[in-house]
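Hi P.,

Sorry for the delay on this. The queue was packed all week, but I finally got your sequence through. Input first:
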Amino acid sequence: MIHQNQVMALSRIWSAFIVIAILVAAWKAFGLGDHEIFNRMITEPNGMIETCSTAVNISIKLIGIMALFMGLMSIAEKAGGIRFLSRIIGPFFSKLFPEVPKGHPATGHMMMNFSANLLGLDNAATPFGIKAMESLQELNPEKDRASNAQIMFLCLHASGLTLIPVSIIAARAALLSTSPTDIFIPCMIATFVATVAAMTIVSIKQKINLFQPVILAWILGISSLIALLVVFLTRMSHTELSTFSGMLSNGIILLIFLIIVGVAWFRGIAVFDAFIDGAKGGFDTAIRIIPYLVGILVAISLLRTSGTFDVVINGMKQFFAFLGADTRFVDGLPTALIKPMSGSGARGMMIDTMTNFGPDSFAGRLACILQGSSDTTFYVIAVYFGAVGVKNTRYAIGSMLLADLVGIITSVLLAYLFFG
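Then the structure:
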């Protein structure tokens, strides 16, 4: 019975999205006289039909990126680079992912994904993450059911730990904020807390002891490095920070290319042949995720165009006003509600909040912190589980959403702490 309920979890959530959206739209159409709402839900630019095309376009754009980075991963594997990386991170990951054998390539793939996420390299993080899921799927005895390692990996990935929120800072600068970088430290703290929360939630479920010396040493070490880098970066101006971020992120990508190709060439690997072997898989994977993306994005589109989010936000504002609480934070919450479902939608909502309330307003700054505190949970579920054909996600969705909630609460508290 439990197994069946786990299989049905995503189906129930997806069905609920559609039913709620249509009921809200019907109430607006027949109760409030909004006779155009059904047209908006189906034919408008953000409507259901256009969203289907958007899902396919996302997958098509992924083909080239997937081919490039999966080809690169193939070279790295044949040159022994992935196993070398696995040995370095092995002592830590063997405690956090006890089902993954020491030295297994999945460890290196996960490390590449986390590194790309940390640097804000979304284009690289997705192929590395899918490759990690495929490696973990090789170890999975039940191919249609998520393994413990896959759940831990995806929950950590979806927590969205990023070092420099460049796109958020750029948006604030474009809207003429007097201090575009003032959300940098709150963003870093919020995303770090969300990541630790995700690790803790899954560890409790999987009975992993986080107080083991190896785990504590790695967490404290990573925390110290991030803290030192934050101190260094906070001394930079907006222009200097953007320049440094671009050089660091793109420079590391080129350095990885140089090291992988150079080592493979030195070891006598047929580099281009190895690249082609890996790149072929990029096409198949990008096509395979289309049905999952179409399903998730259409349901989210119906929620947005039906006005369901507006109903929720207005209800929350009235509730907190009734309690006599400060309601300023509610104006920044639309970004948090949309972020688990749509990255572009949340980005648009963040910009809309800053436009309406001002980039240096409390709501504008909170929206920015919320944008940087997590990843798009349902997109991650659709792409990564879809890529390996996992249907039973078990407790993955609940764990991710709980970590998102921790990130939201932390973001609100930090906004009051830093910007009062």
